[in-house]
Amino acid sequence: MTDLKARFGRPLRLGVVGGGPDSWIGRMHRGAAEFDGWWRCAAGVFSSDEARSRAAGVAMGFAAERSYGSVDEMLAREQARPDGIDAVAIMTPNDTHYPFAAAALAAGLDVVCDKPVTDDFGQACDLVARTRAGGRLFAVAHAYSAYPMTRWARHLVADGMLGPVRLVQVEYIQSGLATRLEEGPQNNRLRWVLDPQRSGQALVMSAIGCHAQHLASFAAGANVARVVADVGTLLPGRRVIDHVSALLEFAGGARGTFTVTQAAAGGENDIRLRVFGERGNLAWSHRDCSYLDVALQGEPARRYGRGDPFLPPTIVAAGRTPRGHPEGLREAFANIYAEVAQERMARALGEPVPAFPYPRIEDGAHTMAFIEACLASQRSGRWEAVARLPQP
To answer: Dihedral of CA 374/268/143/46: which sign?
Structure first.
């Protein structure tokens, strides 16, 4: 695809919303966007305080005239520039994702948005409609589905190696809320994270549960059709939800188990995925992310590694270093940015658009429907259907 970049003639220009100097997710997005040269971070809004935003942009190397005080100002001024931005990347508190994304789409820009995409399913459906009506691209930053070996897992399932899928198990365990942080000093991020009005319908689902659900659906090649869930807190008296366990039924009939929590003492961003089919199973762990284990019934177990030369070119292209050299989250983020750029450039040049598997706004909308079904199940004590997107 390097010839595509050369023929387009320049990197795409990205406007960053959020992710100030002290934000690790801001550094992740900016570094990933520029990792392969497809994008250049050209403008941004880095704080809800106008003065701090302008100062932060300059401190991070952005031109003073493109370090803006608000999103509205950035969109208006960039539209008036001959070298204005092509897309917006959003990494702000959860309750701002929907209005910022809607404003970017209205300005004719593509969007890369952190999760969750919206506060609820209705807003997510609106973003789907806006994206489709404007012919725009909208990616969701579910980077765990952009690792080479999770891409390979999806490929093997779709290719039928396991046979029909029967069971999908996914879990995402963290310890960040294992202590009562509410009673200690809080930085700006903790203030909005621990505020249920700002962090989303269920904190753990907005923070990590959406990643787990998307990864399970991505690997299985099917959305969740219905769910019965236990939604609550591991720490008594906590206002925000820090734990969800659920039984799943996927479209097509496969069953699933789902567990996410941010309050498991000693947990360390532990993500595990297993898919069982009629003929065997595959397993992936974030702690050993460069490898995928496959065990078929009656055959020796095998281990695939990122960089194995016999892998399909699309899987090899998702990695950048030979097998044995570590790669991780930044490279997975970079895969999403690179694929959005290549699709954008191919469209602009009138060339065939590659069928990239990066997470899209439709995936984000399904996640919001999944979260709402889990909450409904907690209230009813029954299986609840996961709402479907309206047909285009």
So the answer is: positive
Please, are residues 385 and 366 in contact by the beta-carbon 8 Å criterion?
no
Residue 382 has pLDDT above 90, yes or no: yes
| 48 vs 391, higher pLDDT | 48
* DSSP 8-state secondary structure symbol assigned to residue 11: P
Cβ neighbours, 10 Å, residue 318: 24
Query: Helices H, strands E: what count in the chain?
Result: 14, 14
- Degrees (nearest 5) of the Cα angle 297, 301, 304? 125
| Domain limits, the chain | 2-143, 145-320+361-380
Q: Find out whether 46 and 53 touch, Cβ atoms under 8 Å.
A: yes
pLDDT on residue 391 = 81
DSSP 209: I
pTM: predicted TM-score of the whole model, two decimal places: 0.95
pLDDT at 160: 98
Quick one: three-class SS letters along 229-243? EEEECCCCCCCCCCE
Q: 227: closest CA among 262, 205, 256, 201?
A: 256
CATH 3.40.50.720 for domain 2-143:
yes
Rounded Cα distance, 374 and 371, in Å: 5
Cis amide bond preceding 116, omega within 30: yes
Q: Which of the following CATH numbers is that of domain 145-320+361-380: 3.30.70.2570, 3.40.50.360, 3.30.360.10, 3.40.190.10?
A: 3.30.360.10
Pairing between β-strand 384-385 and β-strand 110-113 as defined by DSSP bridges? unpaired
**Could you tell me whether strands 87-91 and 12-18 are parallel, antiparallel, or unpaired per DSSP bridges?**
parallel
Please provide the size of the chain in residues.
Answer: 392
Q: Which residues does 134 contact at the CB level (< 8 Å), separation at least 6?
A: 105, 108
Q: Which long-range contacts link 272-275 to residues 24+ away (Cβ below 8 Å)?
A: 272/169, 272/170, 272/171, 273/150, 273/153, 273/168, 273/169, 273/170, 273/215, 273/216, 273/219, 274/167, 274/168, 274/169, 274/170, 275/153, 275/157, 275/162, 275/165, 275/167, 275/168, 275/169, 275/219, 275/220
What is the tens place of the pLDDT at every residue in 317-351? 999 988 888 899 999 999 999 999 999 999 999 99
**Mean pLDDT over each residue of the chain, to the nearest integer:** 95
pLDDT of residue 107: 98
Closest C-alpha to 253, from 170, 364, 169, 164: 164
